[in-house]
Amino acid sequence: MSGQGTLLCIGGTGVCVQSGVLGLMANRPTIAELRATYSPEKRQSDRSFSLWVAFVARPISFYITWVFIRADVRATPVTWFGAGIALAGCVFLALGGYLFQVAGALLIALWSVLDTVYGNLARYYGSAGKRGEFMDALVGYLVVAALFCSLGIGAFVSPDRGVEWAAGSLGLGDRAAREVFLYLGVWSALMVQLAIPISSRYRSLFGESFRQRLPRRNLLGRAFSLALLLRSATGYGAMAPFVLAGAIAGIESAVILYYAAFGTAGMLLVATTTALRAPRD
Hints:
Order of helices and strands: EEHHHHHHHHHHH
Strand content: under 5%
CATH topology: Four Helix Bundle (Hemerythrin (Met), subunit A)
Structural class: mainly alpha
Number of domains: 1
Shape: globular
CATH architecture: Up-down Bundle
Helix content: over 70%
Mean pLDDT: 83
Oligomer: single chain
Strand order of the largest sheet: 1-2
Radius of gyration: 22 Å
CATH superfamily: CDP-alcohol phosphotransferase transmembrane (TM) domain
Number of helices: 11
Distance between the termini: 54 Å
């Protein structure tokens, strides 16, 4: 049998299976068997990260995973296939116009589902590894950056109702309003992800997550707990449905504004928390 994972043979029988497929029907799993690979720890992680992932993307992903396994598609190609889907979505969003933006948002939503398919396949085949996890995360970071830049470009090329309101009600004028949302798109691309290298650097230097040093009963701890709740409901992992809703409603500019504010507030909170809680030498 070709593919990733350790090939195990049962002596004297001539039967060989991959380690990651033991306990499942070789390349013929049921949906229930695929769901069984979804551990309680991973389920809790999904809920903490994003309600969209936990209750929409992940359940849908099991059916797509079922199809991919029958086509003998492995985890890594899904990462690159998803990246291509997301890139196409960003191009459509940048073109502006209602139909292009709805099409682009649908492709971004599909990418978010394929991102969970990668994990399902890696667990099923027993092929999860550091390199694959790193590449999957790298693609995710690049897609998010490209997504908000594309939204900003789309707002500049084809202003929606939010941009038009800013141009008229705020007295910015058409050109200035379009430029503001272009810059806000780029700003959002930076802010929604800047907390990641800050927290990663903290962990690499001090060997623990800064959250472990965060008292839950003081004002800072409660603010951070509230921020995590908001992130799960509407933050980083909920971008796909928000972008889709904004495209359908014709107000992607509102999505840009929200994530510019959300990303900035989240980055400042993480930066402040890590600075205050960093152990003294």
